[in-house]
Amino acid sequence: MKKRLIGGIVAAALLIPTAAFAAPTLIEILTRTPMTAEQVKVDEVGKATLEKLYSAFPETKLFEIIEASSVQGVQTSIILQEKGGTGKKFTLHTNAITGEIEHVNQENWEPKLKPLITLSNQEIKAKVDYLIDKMYGNITGYEFAMEQMDNPDQKTVILNYTKKGSKTPFYQVFVQGNTISVSLIGGETTPSNTQVEGLFSTNGKPDYFADAYLNDAKLFSLLKISPTELKEELAKGKSVVEIAASKNISKQQVIDVIAKTQVDLQIQGENNGDVPKNNRSNEQLLKAIEPKVLQIIEYKTEAPSKK
After folding, report:
1. What is the pLDDT of residues 10-68, one digit of tens each?
2. Does residue 163 sit within a domain?
3. Would you indicate the residue range of the signal peptide (predicted)?
4. How confident is the model at residue 93 (pLDDT cuts 50, 70, 90)?
5. pTM here?
6. Does any domain span residue 305?
7. CB contact set of 276 (below 8 Å; sequence gap of 6+)
8. What is the pLDDT of residues 96-145, one digit of tens each?
């Protein structure tokens, strides 16, 4: 799998998608700055996010912005709901650097008496297909896999949409209750011999959110560890920070190595025309990516749920 550019880094780095139904998200360790509805509408990222949503689902123009915030110039989050506070709802998390909507929650679009999760698998897939198509574009060329997760508390279905020739999902979707949760993973090519996929796991299933960060040759060199060995250590419930500490390597050393790689890839992508150019300096890009890196290296894999 190719290392992904900052311009394509999944929002899961800030909002771990599999944790959306399991535990408080890691984003809570960062500083959120609340935004008013008026601020969202004049903010460059917020305004563009709303325009995309309104174009995809025109009825949301009548929705109220009930909550909004930004996180250290890295992510802008907006929650909209039908007036009255009990109806349909959208939650959007947008990459503040690229303007890309990387995580979408669509809630309460099915009747309460027949919530989404009670529909047949074919009906659920049709609902998910429609949401992705409206928010991101046609998915006809994607391969598809669907399975039920081992969740004793509440039925949860995971759907992976993968480009042909890729092993990592491009879109990863969780359906639970009356909610569809879509994360833009952006999986690309088959991994090289120096990389592994699904470095973390949730409920026994591969979780790809950290792969773009941790598949870093310089990180492996710093830790004096192979990709496979790193995955094995993470599977034991250790964090990258803890693995580094056991080798007398500081947290800041790990952050510096990963952040530099990501920024170098961002600049390379801009020069190649793969991602839009931005006016941020190298120092600004490093500062912007550090909170994401911190979350990844402090994260610990979740043990499978026990029935």
Report:
1. 333 333 333 333 333 444 445 778 999 999 999 988 999 999 999 999 999 999 999 99
2. yes
3. 1-22
4. very high
5. 0.63
6. no
7. 7, 98, 270
8. 777 788 899 999 999 888 999 999 999 999 999 999 999 998 888 888 89
Judge whether 97 lies within some domain: yes
Whether 306 is covered by a domain: the verdict is no
Is residue 78 within 8 Å of residue 68, measured between CB atoms?
yes
Q: What is the count of structural domains for the chain?
A: 1
Burial 85-111 (b: 16+ CB within 10 A, else e): eeebbbbbbbbbbbbbbbbbbbbbbbe
Instruction: Residue 42: give the domain boundaries.
Output: 6-298
Provide the residue type at 37 as one letter.
A
